[in-house]
Amino acid sequence: MFIVEKANLSSHFRSIKKKPPHVPKNYQHAARSFDEKVILHLKTLDLPTSSSNISLSWLSAAVSFLSTVHSEAEDQISNLKSEADDYQVLYMEYSLKVLDLCNLFSSAVQKLTDRRLLLNFSLRLLNFSDQIPSSEKLNKAKDSLTKSLNNTQESVKEKSLRAKALIEELTVLLGKLPPSKSNTGRDLIRRSFSALGVLTVFVGSVLVTVLYGESDVAKLSVPVEFLWADSVNGLQTQIFDLIKPKQNPVLELDDIASQAAIVLDLLHVFVSDDGDKVDGKVRLEDGVKELGTATKKFSDGVDTLTNGVNGMFRTVLNTRNGRLDL
Fold first, then answer.
1. Per-residue pLDDT tens over the stretch 203-238
2. Which element (helix H / strand E) includes 92?
3. What is the four-CA torsion angle of 74, 79, 83, 84, rounded to 10 degrees?
4. Which of 98, 229, 272, 278 has the CA that lies 20 to 30 A from 318?
5. What is the model's pTM?
6. Contact 108, 211 (CB under 8 A)
7. Alpha-carbon distance 324 to 198, whole Å?
8. CA separation for the pair 136, 266 (Å, rounded)
9. Coiled coil where (predicted)?
């Protein structure tokens, strides 16, 4: 991914009271309209009541949701350019941290891509279409599958800690918005930045937990001033309850790990002198087919998440560049 120069805009974090008595009706309407848009976009993150894992497609939807909210906030603030100057430095700090987070998420997704390469290599070696693979291919397939299962987080510990620290730093920024001294557009700007900050920490916390295995990242209680507060608080609780006890909290990762382990066991039996070779071949072929199906779903999810993270990076980068042009 890329790293950018600084740009303009503002940050968010904190907010105004619900329905302040002196805010002109047009600003109240704008604030409510923004909240209603967030509520609408949140529907893309609904989890079925039967969900037992978070999926890569859900993570992709969460990143896309954050990109959309960022664009919605920018559209609202762009109409109040003259009143956004006080938030310029704060936004620069915020957006740079978000870009750093995107780069870290991209790095974590690359690890998933590496695992996909190992799985696809194994599947090519275990091709039974013409004849039984040679012993050399079978052993290489075993090694590749073993590596895919032993893909630990040890090599990315430094990045993991940095990602967690960025979430904590963004949380601190929530308290740094200057207090509003007037009941005008500045209140709406503060509110927009506050909303964006809360939602960034929410989505970022989930991604850091899932992609880097950091279980104690910052979680926020959304201020009641936002109409979507209960929705996000409830969704946050639901998600972390799902991923907390899991070794592989992502559905597709859990599936490929299970299938790869099954194929490994079948390979051990097949290459040994024990058991019926004909029966072993049939069972191994079936296992490889199941692994191929799981790998395809995993691969599609990785591609979608990659595109989502890249899209989020571009959205924030474009906004920063747009602020510089003001």
1. 999 999 999 887 777 778 888 889 999 999 999 988
2. helix 88-125
3. 10
4. 229
5. 0.84
6. yes
7. 24
8. 16
9. 135-169
